[in-house]
């Protein structure tokens, strides 16, 4: 397959369309995480469809003091990776092509969800992100668009924009891709020195610690459903030698609801240790949130949640998250 490199929307519109068009939006500096998105798009679009990869470093997403100027621009390598992963087109427009006449006066507002977590740390970031996503959806006119779960808040906001503003496009989420040591793939990983990378591994270790704690709590809850959690039942089980079942039943009977709190605490321990490393990890936030609005969940919460973390190691800011599901209350 030969991947076409296009720079204008007119060139893209001139292409004949057959099956479904899938778009993967990137800011370039492509890595295996992007390749996974492209391969997934290829599978969904099928042999008769078309996969378009956009490469555009959006100035509206960068605040004062952020890394717009040093953000890596590797278009030749990006086209090669996109081609190997199965893309039909790399669409790499100029700033003037996306924003003719300068920065747009009319923009998409991310609303209250865009002011939390990443939005609180990077004011205006999500307004700029949604504005360019809306622009690129109009310019590329896809049937579906794929985004990675690593940027969980971004994904949630795009889904909300598409639903609230009636964009006729299907949004597909693709699981986070990790390196062998657990670090989530990111274009910013290249900024880390070997010592900084060792510290940065605390982000994924913290998430996995929270995940392990969650799994243990859910297993106990499942056990409690099998063994009714009453003192009388526990005593009866003890009398016939079922000590483990009795202990489980008694523990659940005496336990105070607090699964989310325990998950946060397990993750926090790892991050606190990392703050004492050399170089240290500077925590921005650790949050356990409802993915529908990115507000913190309470201890009686049931349903899907996201455990998210952001931190700086040296001058590099990194984010990561994992999805969790809390079972029904006993």
Automatic annotation (TrEMBL):
<keyword id="KW-0566">Pantothenate biosynthesis</keyword>
<feature type="binding site">
    <location>
        <position position="61"/>
    </location>
    <ligand>
        <name>beta-alanine</name>
    </ligand>
</feature>
<dbReference type="InterPro" id="IPR003721">
    <property type="entry name" value="Pantoate_ligase"/>
</dbReference>
<feature type="binding site">
    <location>
        <position position="61"/>
    </location>
    <ligand>
        <name>(R)-pantoate</name>
    </ligand>
</feature>
<feature type="binding site">
    <location>
        <position position="177"/>
    </location>
    <ligand>
        <name>ATP</name>
    </ligand>
</feature>
<dbReference type="GO" id="GO:0004592">
    <property type="term" value="F:pantoate-beta-alanine ligase activity"/>
</dbReference>
<comment type="subunit">
    <text>Homodimer.</text>
</comment>
<protein>
    <recommendedName>
        <fullName>Pantothenate synthetase</fullName>
        <ecNumber>6.3.2.1</ecNumber>
    </recommendedName>
</protein>
<feature type="binding site">
    <location>
        <begin position="148"/>
        <end position="151"/>
    </location>
    <ligand>
        <name>ATP</name>
    </ligand>
</feature>
<dbReference type="InterPro" id="IPR042176">
    <property type="entry name" value="Pantoate_ligase_C"/>
</dbReference>
<feature type="binding site">
    <location>
        <begin position="185"/>
        <end position="188"/>
    </location>
    <ligand>
        <name>ATP</name>
    </ligand>
</feature>
<keyword id="KW-0436">Ligase</keyword>
<dbReference type="Pfam" id="PF02569">
    <property type="entry name" value="Pantoate_ligase"/>
</dbReference>
<comment type="similarity">
    <text>Belongs to the pantothenate synthetase family.</text>
</comment>
<keyword id="KW-0963">Cytoplasm</keyword>
<dbReference type="InterPro" id="IPR014729">
    <property type="entry name" value="Rossmann-like_a/b/a_fold"/>
</dbReference>
<keyword id="KW-0547">Nucleotide-binding</keyword>
<feature type="binding site">
    <location>
        <position position="154"/>
    </location>
    <ligand>
        <name>(R)-pantoate</name>
    </ligand>
</feature>
<feature type="binding site">
    <location>
        <begin position="27"/>
        <end position="34"/>
    </location>
    <ligand>
        <name>ATP</name>
    </ligand>
</feature>
<comment type="function">
    <text>Catalyzes the condensation of pantoate with beta-alanine in an ATP-dependent reaction via a pantoyl-adenylate intermediate.</text>
</comment>
<comment type="pathway">
    <text>Cofactor biosynthesis; (R)-pantothenate biosynthesis; (R)-pantothenate from (R)-pantoate and beta-alanine: step 1/1.</text>
</comment>
<keyword id="KW-0067">ATP-binding</keyword>
<feature type="active site" description="Proton donor">
    <location>
        <position position="34"/>
    </location>
</feature>
């Amino acid at each position: 397959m030969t991947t076409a490199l296009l720079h204008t929307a007119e060139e893209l519109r001139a292409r004949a369309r057959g099956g479904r068009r899938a778009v993967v939006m990137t800011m370039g500096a492509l890595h295996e995480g992007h390749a996974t998105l492209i391969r997934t798009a290829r599978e969904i679009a099928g042999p008769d469809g078309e996969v378009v990869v956009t490469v555009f470093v959006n100035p509206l997403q960068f605040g004062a003091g952020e890394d717009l100027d040093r953000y890596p621009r590797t278009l030749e390598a990006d086209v090669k990776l996109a081609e190997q992963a199965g893309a039909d087109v790399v669409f790499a427009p100029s700033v003037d092509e996306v924003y003719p006449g300068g920065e747009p006066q009319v923009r998409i507002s991310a609303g209250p969800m865009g002011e939390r977590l990443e939005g609180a740390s990077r004011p205006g970031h999500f307004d700029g992100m949604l504005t360019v996503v809306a622009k690129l959806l109009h310019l590329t006119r896809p049937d579906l668009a794929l985004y990675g779960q690593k940027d969980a808040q971004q994904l949630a906001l795009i889904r909300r924009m598409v639903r609230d503003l009636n964009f006729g496009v299907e949004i597909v989420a693709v699981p986070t891709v990790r390196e062998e040591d657990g670090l989530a793939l990111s274009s910013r990983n290249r900024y880390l020195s070997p010592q900084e990378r060792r510290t940065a591994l605390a982000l994924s270790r913290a998430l996995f610690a929270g995940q392990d704690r969650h799994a243990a709590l859910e297993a106990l809850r499942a056990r409690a459903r099998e063994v009714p959690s009453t003192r009388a039942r526990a005593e009866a089980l003890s009398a016939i030698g079922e000590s483990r079942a009795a202990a489980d039943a008694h523990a659940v009977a005496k336990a105070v609801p607090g699964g989310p709190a325990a998950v946060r605490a397990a993750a926090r321990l790892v991050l606190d240790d990392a703050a004492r490393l050399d170089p240290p990890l500077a925590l921005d936030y650790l949050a356990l949130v409802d993915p529908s609005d990115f507000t913190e969940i309470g201890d009686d919460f049931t349903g899907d949640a996201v455990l998210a973390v952001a931190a700086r190691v040296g001058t590099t800011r990194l984010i990561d998250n994992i999805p969790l599901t809390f079972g029904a209350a006993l």
